[in-house]
Amino acid sequence: MKVLFIGYWGAKEGLSVATIYPHLRILSSFEHIKEIYYVSIERDNIDVNINFNIPKLIHLPLYSGHTLKDKLKDFTSFPAELIRFVQTKSIDKIICRGAPAGALGYLIHKKTTVPYYVESFEPHADYMLEAGVWSKWNPKYILEKYWEKKQKDTAKGLMPVSNAYKNHLVEEGISMDKIHTIPCCVDLDTFNYKHEDHISIRSQLNISMDSVVGVYVGKFGGIYYEEEAFQLFKAFFEYYQERAYLIILTPQEELCQEYFTQYSIPTEQTKVGLVEHSDVPKYLSASNFAFSLHKPSPSKIGISPIKNGEYWANGLPIIIPDGIGDDSRIVREEKIGCVLDTKNHSIFEDLDHSFLNRSNQQRSSLSLVAKKYRSFEVSEEVYKLVYGM
Q: Angle 375-376-377 (CA atoms, 0-180°, nearest 5)?
């Protein structure tokens, strides 16, 4: 079998490394898959030379730009190029990562009839509308909404990242037989808690061993909380006082400093900035709990934040808003954190009593939740089912 795997991000981007590479490795492990052609969209006009170290894999970078004209061109010139490739190479199946990549899959399928599957299928157009990134009359929104409808109608299989969105698709009338949930999984070994990192990072940052450390990895604004996040951080400092320490791993350092001033958050009890992706697990190990800060909206039932899986793999309870994919429900049912309630002003008291006095052994037991819900074994089992492997 020959497979064309389409991503809509650059091959070196974090989302590709975290979500596409592991799935390429799983595909490569199946005996009857002979060739995998991986398409990435590179937007900086540079040659991409990567040693993937994945058998059977051939990388096909396509080069584009960042303007609206470039994005529209993605769906005219690229499909034509890929249609010729699919026909020349006699591709058997097309796998697309995300709804924008699924649009390319649909356009190729329309001309070739080669079956295509969309992983991480999501209401992407609605995400962007609700976040204020696109308006209802933006050509990007109109086209993406149209292509998502076509994917629902013509894709051989849809793999949303949450059961909540799977149920929504079934309610829309899509056959349950063609929908299979694959959450955003993580490398459990990479993000496993390490006591030596707990000690070394706290020593490096001059954090006492009895401090309560909260961590947030990500951005602010758009689809994430912004001012609400810093109001939450302020409540954290008010509850724990001098014992509180906050680690924020983000590129928005200047924004953080502005809000620290506005909310009188003591900067000497914070660490803000970017670190190498390989160092993120060390900072998680130094922490006691994590913040998950996606802004709730109707379309958020369709997401599976990869950071939540990383937090859980490290044994961290999380504070999360309600209505975020399956994760808010999992937090409640598995008792692995606290769900934010605007009427609940004792969130840190609840967190303190329920989780922060846990031993390392109890922290390890919490990481088992990551194995249950976010292990790549979950992805592999769905692959076997969907692709008949």
A: 85
* Residue 62, helix vs strand vs coil: strand
DSSP 70-81: HHHHHTTHHHHH
Question: In angstroms, rounded to a whole number, what is the distance separating the alpha carbons of residues 21 and 13?
Answer: 11
Three-state SS at 114: coil
Name the residue with higher pLDDT: 46 or 359. Answer: 46
Please tell me what DSSP assigns to residue 135. Answer: -
Domain CATH code at residue 59: 3.40.50.2000
Q: Is residue 319 part of a domain?
A: yes
Q: Mean pLDDT of all residues in the chain?
A: 92
Of 190, 216, 211, which Cα lies nearest the Cα of 294? 216
Please check whether residue 254 is in contact with residue 161, taking contact to mean a CB–CB distance below 8 angstroms: no
φ/ψ of residue 81, rounded to 5: -65, -45
Could you tell me if 337 and 307 are in contact, meaning their C-beta atoms sit under 8 angstroms apart? no
Instruction: Kindly state the tokens that stand for 218.
Output: 């990500």
In this structure, which amino acid lies at residue 346? S
- Give the pLDDT score at 356: 67
What are the start-end ranges of the E strands in 122-227?
A: 157-160, 212-217
- Residue 343 has a pLDDT of 58
| 207/262 same-domain check | yes
Decide if 379 is inside a domain.
Answer: no
| Cα separation, 193 vs 228, whole angstroms | 29
- What backbone phi and psi angles, to 5 degrees, belong to 350? -65, -45
10/142 same-domain check? yes
Domain housing 104: 2-155
Closest Cα to residue 114, out of 79, 67, 70, 163?
79
Tell me whether residue 166 is in a domain. Answer: no
Q: What gap in Å lies between CA 284 and CA 216, rounded to an integer?
A: 9
Instruction: Calculate Rg over the CA atoms of the chain.
Output: 22
